[in-house]
Amino acid sequence: MLEYQLLSPEEESGELYPYRRVWRSLILEMVVLLLVAAAVFIGVQLDIIEDAYSRTGNILLALLPIGLFYVFSVRSEQRVAEPRQGLLVVLLLSVIVANGVAWTVIQEVFTPDRWLVEAGFFSRIIGYTFTLGILAEFCKYAVIRYTVWPDRFRYRLDGVAYSVPAALGYALVVNLHFLLQDEPTISAAAIRVLVNVYLHITVGALMGYFLAELLIGRVPFFWLPFGLFLASFISSLFIAFRRIAVVSGLGSRDIGGLLLVLGFTVFVLGAVAFLIDSADERTAARAGLRRLR
Asked: Taking the CB of residue 275, how many other CB atoms lie within 10 A of it?
């Protein structure tokens, strides 16, 4: 299940890594999306691009993360010895669940626009945690849990690998509803798409770690509920701080949210990478195995 081999001093060091490099693919996808958003924003500031509502342009921006995922992740899986199966299935089901279940609950049951928008800072954190946060993370968890877990999970990074399409599917629905209903300008759309995608990928990766550790590690009985709550709480913290950031006087009400999500993403994904690497090292040490890198 794990990417370890027996220790052997005579073994050659040039072994081929049989899986897709998850972090490399994810970083490429996120960097390209950031560059596109930056190009749109700079183009607007330099009057190269008209900052107006464009239905076609906004839809293309919403679909861009899916295209990047296909190029850098799905296609890459086809070139490795042991590809992950079911990535597109997770993506499609996440879109269906997000649009058919989550969005309906948000609009007809939670209705956050009526009571959460003007709530105080701490009330907003609590409110979002137990409504939008818990709903989003549970939907992404359920898609992974009832499609690829546990059969497709071989080692801890599989949790991150499968959390990305689940997050992208959910973010696509959120972005399309915002872009088609609110009709933002092209620059606002580019930044909002990036913020939503980064947020869902980052928090989803944390939930993916908890799912993988549930299968591979030695965890207490409350591990999964705690992971679900933690992911929801962290997501709600970002939403609460984002409201402060967008009114911080940085020239554009969206730039504050962009800067916040960049720092948020680096910190949380860095923490997830550290937790996974540390857990893998401990597992290898206990078993007397050597990790393939």
From this structure: 15
* Phi, psi dihedral angles at 289 (to 5 degrees): -115, 160
Reference 163, options 192, 203, 116, 106; nearest CA is: 203
Name the packing angle between helices 22-45 and 186-216 (round to 10°).
170
**In sequence order, what DSSP letters do the residues of 202-230 get, joined into one string?**
HHHHHHHHHHHHHHHS---TTHHHHHHHH
Cα–Cα distance between 66 and 33 in angstroms, integer? Answer: 10
Radius of gyration, CA atoms only, the chain: 20
Q: Residue 129 in contact with residue 233, Cβ under 8 Å? A: yes
Q: How far apart are CA 166 and CA 137, in angstroms?
A: 10
CB 84 within 8 A of CB 77: yes
**Dihedral sign of CA atoms 278, 76, 164, 207 in order:** negative
Q: How many CB atoms lie within 10 A of CB 18?
A: 12
Vertex 173: Cα angle to 87 and 183 (nearest 5): 145
Q: Which two tokens stand for residue 198?
A: 């980064």
Q: Please write the tens of the pLDDT for every residue from 27-57.
A: 999 999 999 999 999 999 999 999 999 999 9
- In sequence order, what are the beta bridge partners of 262? none
The Cα 122–Cα 136 span in angstroms is 20
Whether the CB-CB separation of 143 and 166 falls below 8 Å is answered with: yes
pLDDT per position as a tens digit, 263-272: 999 999 999 9
Residue 247, class by beta-carbon neighbours within 10 Å (0-12 exposed, 13-18 middle, 19+ buried)? exposed
Does residue 261 contact residue 199 with C-beta atoms inside 8 Å?
yes
For residue 252 the two structure tokens come to: 């554009």
